[in-house]
Amino acid sequence: MDDLNEKKDALIATAKRCFDLRLQTNAGGNLSVRLDSANAIVIKPSGVGFNECTRDNLQIVHLDGTLELSDYKPSKDLDFHLDLYRIRKDIRAVVHCHSPWATGYASAGIEIPCLTVQTIEKIGRMPLIPLSPQGGPQTDKEISPVFEDPKVVAAVLANHGTIGVGNTLIKAQYLAEIIEETAHIAYVRDTLMAAHGKTAADLPQYGTAADARAAEQ
Ligand SMILES: [Zn+2]
Known about the structure:
Blueprint: H1 4-20, E1 30-34, E2 40-43, E3 59-62, H2 78-87, E4 93-97, H3 100-107, H4 117-122, E5 128-129, H5 140-147, E6 154-157, E7 161-166, H6 169-195, H7 209-216
Parallel strand pairs: 5-6
Antiparallel strand pairs: 1-2, 1-4, 2-3, 4-7, 6-7
Bound molecules: zinc ion.
């Protein structure tokens, strides 16, 4: 596991960034990264806050679900993390947090619209994944089918939080930030539209000037 400490340090830095931005307070949420040197991941353990991750408390779990011996319990969401790595080779990191603007939309049962050019470019669509059939937290049974579409890089869990994935931790973290930022912008837009009696507003069709040029041809 040559890259173990490098990946642990990247996870600690990303978790701290997520905490500092107040995308995740307390001990909720979780994040993980795949090792290059083994068929295994490093994941935040259950009951440890994003701001309290250390080389000593992070857990190593093999993709077949085997846990390396540790004093900590695995994250409650371990199964969906493992399954995302199994179904998509391009996924090398997962950031899941309960950021408030996005989770507000998710609790209202409203899919966050991709209403900025950056969201169109970087995400395209953020599917809203409903609660489990029993009304509980989403598991790999609800989450994995959505991510089987290779274009999906971000999703929002009803009454729960957000998921960003990427080939590095910082890319998954950027998506967690864009999801939250977009939910905030959407709330401001919807509030202003209601205050001004507007019922419709433009949405971008393309994320970049290059996409726009390609569409014209
Ligand atoms: Zn959660």
